[in-house]
Amino acid sequence: MNETQVSPELIQKTIDFHGHSCPGLAIGIRAAEVALREVGRSSDEEVVAVVENDNCAVDAIQFLLSCTYGKGNLVHLDYGKLAFNFYRRSDGKAIRVIGRPEIFGHQDDEFINLRKTKIMRDLTGEEKERLKRSTAARINQIMEADLDELFEITPVQGPIPQKAQILESLICEACGERTIESRTRRFLGQTLCIPCFEARENKILMRE
Ligand SMILES: [Zn+2]
Ligand SMILES: [Zn+2]
Fold first, then answer.
1. What is the sign of the dihedral through the CA atoms of 33, 38, 43 and 49?
2. Residue 4's pLDDT band (boundaries 50, 70, 90)?
3. C-alpha 187 to ligand 2 mean position (Å)
4. Model-level pTM?
């Protein structure tokens, strides 16, 4: 691997954190490397990652960059894109890292085909072996490639996402559970949590 900033030990720890080695995690490790090169690692909430997918790759971002949901410096946008944005709070430097379609878009290769087959039926022993081999080959391909070969890296304009705010909690008048104020809904003069609000809304819809 060239220009790496992630040691083999750290890669192993990332795999342990995620639970298995897979191409998705490999993509995340490489995207994290871009972030380390361009904006560095988050010691606390210094670096904010805004990820546009929720696949295996995100676990590598969390582990290697210390961007976590709990701290609020990992933001998921449900766009279904192989794209990661990294913001450095100290100087506002921000980059967008997007997987190149010519690398990640081969829908016709053996790996993709076998994965599709696996969803529909059990693979034969021979197919399982082939899937194992092509998975390993794909992981290798991702881990060995130059970062700029894998990703298009562009600057990002616009504001840095805000730090997690401490908000008031209110008591839901239906279930009695404490709920962050911004997540409560008003319904016929009552303050409700989202599940209780949706339950009432559905009841009304059913009656119509
Ligand atoms: Zn995975
Ligand atoms: Zn409730």
1. negative
2. low
3. 12
4. 0.79
